[in-house]
Task: structure prediction
Amino acid sequence: MTETLTTSERQTLLRIARESLEDAVRGKALPLLSVYPITPALGANGASFVTLTVQGELRGCIGALEAYQPLAEDVREHAVAAALEDPRFPPVREEELNRIQIEVSRLTPPRQLEYETSEELLAKLHPHVDGVVLRHGSKRATFLPQVWEKIPNPEEFLNQLCYKMNVKPNTWRDVKLLVFTYQVEEFHE
Result:
C-alpha cells in the first residue's frame, strides 16, 4: 500500500460494502463490480477487513491479512461475510440494516516482528498504530490497530489476543510466538 485512497475511492468501497451487505441479507444477487467506478487502486490486489457495528458495539468483523484478489472484490466479499458468517454472531437480519455502521480497513502487508524476550516484544509494539498477528503452531489471531482504543495496555492487548487465538492469555510471555505487525488505512460511513 504505497498511496492512500482518494475520498472518491473510499466512498466507492463503502458503497460496495453497503450495497453488497444489504443485498446479501435480503437474499438478492450481489451487485456486479462493473457498475462501480473501479480505479486502478481498487482493481489492484488488496487486503481488507470489514467491521460492522451497532451503536459502537461489534456486530461482525471478517477480513484477510494477505492480498489475494482485487481490493474492491475483497471488500465486497468481507462485507457479506461479516454480516452472515462471523461465527461470534448470528447472521444480520434485515430489520438491523438501518442501524449497522460499516468500517473498512485496508491493510499493509504484515511484517514479522523480530524479538528475543517478552519485554522486547512489548517495547517494539506501537499501540494505536500496529495491527498485531500472533501465530502459535497452526493457531493464529489478529487485532486491528483500532482494538487499541478498547485495550490500550500492551500486556492486556497481547493477553486478549492469545485468548482469541484459543491459548492461555499469557502464552506470549512463556513461548516465543511468531508476531507480525501491519498498519491500516481505516474509513467508515
Observations:
- The longest helix spans residues 7-25.
- The two ends are 22 Å apart (CA to CA).
